[in-house]
Specification:
Length: about 400
Amino acid sequence: MLEGHFQPDAIPETGHAQRLRDRGSGQIRAGDPLHGQPEANAYAVFASLSGAQAADEIAVATTRLCPSQAMHRIAGVLPRIARQAPAVLITGESGVGKEVLARDIHRLDARRRKGPFVAVNCGGLAESLLESELFGHERGAFTGALRAKEGVFERAHGGTLFLDEIGEMPVAMQVKLLRAVQDRAITRVGGERSVAVDWRLICATHRDLRQLVQDGTFREDLYYRIHVISLHVPPLRERPEDILWFARRVLDEYAVQYPDDPKSLSVCAESQLLRHDWPGNLRELRHCIERACILTEGPRIESLACLEVNEVAHAHPLRHQGQTLAGYVAARERERILEMLIANEWHIGQTADRLRISRKSLWEKMKKLEIQKQKAQPLDHESSVPRPIRQRRNATVAEPTCN
């Protein structure tokens, strides 16, 4: 698959943009992966903005996204995509926040953000209702059509149309969607008059559209139309540094909603969060924290496993298949050091004593294994949330004993 490589050097080195540049280059998927040739206009969205404008827009985007490098790279390209990309495809597992990303693109578009953001789940409607929901209908078009109704295509005029789970759309409806995207005009069910529409199209799916094209269940020409720019959101298990950041953000939201009952996470609860695989991604994590807040008496959430609010006790172990002996040993060493650091609240001297090594050896191992202490990550001008531990992909932490 061809990938469009975004080089952060295109970001003017001002404020937050400079910090994004220091994080290294990012990628977004773009072009025509089926035949190996990118579309000619796929890279036009990388035109530079003015320094102050880019810095401000990127800073705004990153306050809503998680602090991992993968999400920072996505935040770095959002202003360019919002400014020029006519169609965007967002892929990723269920619960990773694809609609949040779509709303950020809409919000960063100075021309369309004053217009509506209209979202429809293509997999949540029966095929018989989908056409009327998308295109609208005239009075008397079918039994029960007592009055004329605008479809989402018309309601999104001047703004953004977000089609979630586009891979679930029936093939017959894909033909009509393709015509609407090409002509920027639609005809209501039972109508004869063509209605002009103007919107940015953002589609999202958790399925592999390329495979659906090869299987004949998704039209190839429609795939090309919606795949001008593609953003892939990694699952939460591949960016564990986002787990504690997002959990604390949910706790902050809970404290705002219930100021008389604020909650915080114990070291034990944090460790359990880091050990879980989160198949439901951010949606599952949010619900887990919300349930814990409801069930916990007192200001501190001591243990998620003891409350049975999630299946953290059945978290998957490290996947060592195909890993060398040296890699296995390093992964286990990292687990143990990270566990002891958390248990000792990042006190280097106490941790070194419990591990029976010198402070210098501990510092060297932390540097080699890329273990970093949590740092503050600002959310907005009024509050801040500590930034979670940086970890390698699929890293886990041994669960401490819960009292």
